[in-house]
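Please check our next protein.
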Amino acid sequence: MSYYPPYGQAPPPQGGGYYQQPPPGQYPPQQQGGYPQQQGGYPQQQFGTPSPAPYGAPPPQQAPYGAPQQAPYGAPPPQQAPYGAPPAAPYGAPAHGAPPPAAPYGQQPPYGQQPPYGAPPPAGYGAPPPAGYPGSGGYAAPAAPTPPSPGYGAPQMIAWDASHDANALRQAMKGFGTDEKALIRVLSDKDPLQVEALRSTYQRLHRRDLVADIESETSSWLEFSLVSLARGPLLNDVYLLYDAMDGPGTKESVINDVLLSRSNADIQAIKSLYRQKFHRSLEDAVRGDLSMKTERHFMIVLQGTRAEDSAPVQKYEVDRDVQELYNATEGKTGTDEIRVCSILSTRNDNHIRAIAHEYQQRYARPLEEVIAREFSGHMEDALLFQLRHASDKYMHQATLLEDAMTGMGTRDKLLISRIVRVHWDRTNLANVRGAYEKRYHKNLAQRVRGEISGDYERLMMACLGERV
């Protein structure tokens, strides 16, 4: 679902807003040929529009005037450069500023251009099964592996000179006092590949470790935020896991954030770097801090055997999983926890979203409600995390940010790590901000500003795309 219109498209007439309730008696909205599909972005929410559907339900579909009809479930989403996407400037140009004109909504990429990261294959839900499935009379071609997220793959050379920013960072921390504004300005708008280049250039030019210098020159939550940015997404994930399992107690929310609903490539990268940094396998570390069936759940996750994003959604497989989930929960006395964990940990998001839709159609209650009733504690939180991420990943990230600020006091470490994780991809950030406004009828940056102050606030505002 899109939380904002394609760039350049006029907003709807006043009083209507972008969100439309589905017609009475039609929930969730049906599409010819299959299940509703999560779209690539969210339209900006205008205050006073109708409330969204219950969380976890497939988002209602609304195509802008003149847009092409929606493709069957599982087909690739239309190509769209949404508002908030970084301009097509030379690599390393600041991420802030007006976006470039976008291609018409639904326009396919030029010949030879790769589809968006994680886009499903052209075959839609309900299409004939590929070779190798029952009735096909052949062997199935393996799904294309989902590529690692930016910053999780092999080191890359980029066409960007990091020496100017490396010198600016050193100047900001050299001598008496620290120029916190310079640190914020340099580190807040870099993408994962730029951060990696900046860290290595700083080491080469000044024979110093950038993270160590930041730790010695700053303190409190500003230090934690700057260090998170300077490490980059993969290295920061590894240190977050280590800190979450070091010492008494375990910070389950951090473990969920880092490990759940990740691609196989990202899981393997995290496991490899964790062993390299701490000379211990991540599996052993998790076993030492979790117990019983929750431990087994995360062992399934760490195996990295999740269906690739390009694997097509097959109706007979969805029906089978829906029946197995029912048999493991409502259909028996007691609960087969491991079967539920296995299904939600080894299916891709498209498949899980189809399961959730089909479960409600067949048994007249949301799968999320069933999980909340049948499970408790960390396992309940982990399973709901996987289900909500698959149902609507932008709305899920928005609710995680709100959860870090709700209640007595701000959970600063969670808030920082979640904002930093969202900010690495500016298109993702724009969608999360739109989803937050849609759900809470507030501006995300203003909400965060009300919880924190000082240089810490300025850095978080910069990470959220605000000018500081």
User: Anything to note?
Assistant: The chain is about 50% helix and 0% strand.
